[in-house]
Amino acid sequence: MKTLDVDRSDAEYRAWLKEAVRKVQADANRSADTHLLRFPLPEEWGVDLYLKDESTHPTGSLKHRLARSLFLYALCNGWIRPGCPVVEASSGSTAVSEAYFAKLIGVPFIAVMPRTTSCEKISLIEAQGGSCHLVDDTRTLYEVSARLAEESGGHYMDQFTYAERATDWRGNNNIAESIYAQLRLERHPVPTWIVATAGTGGTSATLARYVHYTQADTRICVADPENSCFFDGWVSGDPTVACERGSRIEGIGRPRMEPSFIPGAIDRMMKVPDAASIAAMRTLARVMGRKPGGSTGTGLWSAFKIISEMRAAGERGSVVTLICDPGDRYLDKYYADEWLVEQGIDIAPATAALEGFLATGEWTA
After folding, report:
1. Of the N and C termini of the chain, which has fewer Cβ atoms inside 10 Å?
2. Cβ burial, residue 313 (10 Å; 0-12/13-18/19+)
3. Pair 122, 270 in one domain
């Protein structure tokens, strides 16, 4: 009987692959965990609020974790090859982080992004040696990315499909495991709620799966901005829902239900107006002296609302949300009053509601 035998191993490629994986793992090994900050609320409220500060990663955002996982996943699957570009569809922060890892292993990187992406993010990508391909219609990001990868002989990373499967949600120092470890000595060590936002949906999937896997009594809420379909798709159970416009809150909100968004794992969703997101973002900057990005404000607004409900019900416990990225990437947008006027956004009512909540604990928004 004849044995069929095909050997496609390449010693030079295998040596390159081993070194690339080593470099990515070494980045994680020399990086400290991010801080879990406590937001100052009155002790007598009986509810504590924490913010997982993901802005302190080497590339400045929550997406550093995702990019590392995506690169390891693609490398170990044999999808990234020496000298061939990695292409990604992104609203900015994932592209910054992926450009970093592409440079680390020595491959070209192309970011396909909306033309409205902040100048600061474009500069950060280019500083890592990446190039930016800007598109006017955010709905074309996927097809343009796939086409560029095919034309260049590269790999389309496709974070929106692979985010939920590239991350080890059972543990391995993922964001969920880190949060629970850091809360261990707090007065309410098991959070009542964790509030996340969704771009790919990978973070909310990781958090929710870890909660269910560890059998923790924690519920997961996802806060969704304007011009995003996640809320409508979750409520209706329709995976085909879409919206015509792109989100003004960079990094979160999508025009379609992304494959990495896992609706069944989530307990609650909130639709947050952009004015509320920006007001909450600026409130955090004022109270804690840390300028976050707009997506942080989206999650923080929802966290405040949940805390008000817990107080009204006489419930004690802790709530966790995320500082997703730093505000210095958005000085010309969310921190610029001129931009707010151009967009027709009035944050005064939401700001007044937040000030009232922090003073009295009552929610009037």
Report:
1. N
2. exposed
3. no
Given a contact cutoff of 8 angstroms between Cβ atoms, the answer to whether 298 and 249 are in contact is yes
Strand duo 219-225 + 268-272: pairing: parallel
CA neighbours within 13 Å on the CB side: how many for 124?
A: 22
Residue 10 belongs to some domain of the structure: no
* Structural domain for 311, as ranges: 25-58+174-360
- Contact (CB, 8 A) for 267 and 222: no
Do residue 140 and residue 276 come from a single domain?
A: no
Q: Is 221 helix (H, G, I), strand (E, B) or coil?
A: strand
Q: First-to-last CA distance in the chain?
A: 77
pLDDT at 6 (0 to 100):
60
Which element (helix H / strand E) includes 33? none
Specify whether 212 is located in the same domain as 297. Answer: yes
Say yes or no: 73 and 39 in one domain: no
Distance CA(350)–CA(356), nearest Å, equals 10
**What is the CA angle 292-296-298, rounded to 5?**
135
Strand-strand pairing, 36-39 and 47-53:
antiparallel
Q: Which residues of the chain have pLDDT under 70?
A: 1, 5-8, 173
- 174-304-193 Cα angle (round to 5): 40
